[in-house]
Amino acid sequence: MSQMLQVSVPLFIVYLALTGNVEPSNLVIGALIAVGVSLLRPKMDLPLINPKRLPQFLWAGIRYIFIVAGDVIRGGISTARIVLDPKLPINPGIIAIPSGTRSELGTALSAHSISLSPGEMVVAIDDDGVMYTHCLNVDGSERMIANAQSLRKNLLSRMFE
User: Which positions ≥6 away from 135 have C-beta within 8 Å?
Assistant: First the structure.
């Protein structure tokens, strides 16, 4: 029941934010849609958010969003430089990055964050949580991605573990 609420309540809030309509009929429709979607979704082992840890969860989530945004901007600039100056030496390849998180959700979020960054894409994740990532420049990316992954792992563990 609590996992259903953990999915239904945010869906209901997003529905209301998108429609901008708080008439009683719209509230009922929004609640029905939110509950219906939460009942139809596959049963996942979602970590429950402890109310005592909510401030820590929110703070880590906000920091995580800004860090990912910074990674996307830096990756975009780096990729644009490579595209605009074809004489820049690149060394494309695949590197292995351990996710370092105990939860599948943490590994998935970490892989998604890496793939959002231009010039990098997670192509596979093994059973141990190692993410195989394609980079445009393996030489410079390996150390930078390892540092960024360490920071992401720290924030994700604060959020979900």
Answer: 92, 93, 94, 95, 119, 120, 141, 142, 145
